[in-house]
Amino acid sequence: MGVACPPASTLFFMVLNYASSISIVFLNKIAYRAGFPSITLTLIHFAVTALGLKLCSLAGIFQPKQLRISDVLPLALAFCGFVVFTNLSLTYNTVGFYQLAKVMTTPVIVFVQFVFYKQTFALRILLSLLIVCIGVAQATNADVTTSTLGMFFATCGVLVTAFYQIWVKTKQTDLDVNAFQLLYYQAPLSALVLVVVVLVFENPWAEGGLASQALVDIPVIPVLMSAVVSFAVNLSIFLVIKSTSAITYNVLGHFKLCTVLAGGFVLFHDPINAMQGMGITITLFGIFFYSFFKLTEQQTPVLPTKQ
Prior knowledge:
Elements: H1 8-33, H2 38-58, H3 69-92, H4 95-103, H5 105-117, H6 123-139, H7 148-174, H8 179-201, H9 220-243, H10 246-267, H11 274-299
Helix pairs in contact: 1-9, 1-10, 2-8, 2-9, 3-7, 3-8, 5-7, 5-10, 6-10, 6-11, 7-9, 9-10, 10-11
């Protein structure tokens, strides 16, 4: 049984997502430490992404396709739900429980695809995903206390994240569009919805809000750099999921988490204990086996049926 190599374009999309996502994590970290509101930053990200896609269409990089707003609105609302509920989860839960809840996105995607899309997975794929989830849970080992409200927000966050990532692929297939054409509609829609969300949760004109801060106190350069990088992040998410699957994108996300933890240790001297180090190692083993099994699946020949 041989091992197939993924197409060069898929590898490029994954490397682009990996590099841009790692970069934006550290840029956002600088902005957050300076007190910049997180949902407002996400709004800026999607506004810049929408602008970037408009410029790409004018440059002839892709041809926009006429879509009904009603076809794309669920995707935009799911993303905004993901932003709101994950922020509320972080507010009402400990960081440890927040990270643990994010790990549950992977099995929830498997469950949703099995129940609603009749998609099945080989046992070895499921076992490799289990290893990945156990490793990530251990790597993010911390206080995991929660409350009823915190549990509710975390559950909602996991569910909308799972559906969002699944819809990123199904919408491209059902609507017969590519990543550029779908994100061309989703980005401005999400930005408009996030305007309302920002006014509710991070009103810039409220006391202590962003509008009351002096310009010198706002981390302008990290925010602008983060916004530019977000274009590559948002686009590469659509490209990776379309070329692979929501599950593979999740596994890539776990690999990025390991890199962020290791990078934090090297660059910012963030502490990593022995349990976390073991968790990173277990995660990497799980990712290796998942990748190997997926590639061998692609190489497995289809036996002809007897006439």
